[in-house]
Amino acid sequence: MLKHVSPSISPELLKTLDEMGHGDEIVLADANFPFVGCANVIRLDGVKMLDLLPGVLDLLPLDPYNPKDNFALMATTNGDPTPTIWADYDKVAKAKGEGYTKAAMVERYAFYERAKKAHCVVITGETAVYANIILKKGVIHA
Prior knowledge:
single chain
């Protein structure tokens, strides 16, 4: 155990976050996410997104050079309603997300393509629909 590290952050995820460089992306994905074809996958099956996201944002600064794209959500399709979890994401990101301004919307298939190129995809146990997030890592200042 480490002080100030969320218990939702597994040792494997902590190592992965540490290995990421400026501009690398990580996907926090819901339980329905089709991760086949993604290179580095970490499973956190029992973890809900609202438990994981604050812990990740405590450790990972968002890229201030890409403020319109450093926190991206999968856009809804077919007239689906706006997911209620997005309002919760916005609250968490405003409180914890260094470099956060507003979530970007990424079309579903474009989101999948970005996920295939991401440094890592974290599959959670989140059952809310459209609960997927792409975070672009910023820099740590001395």
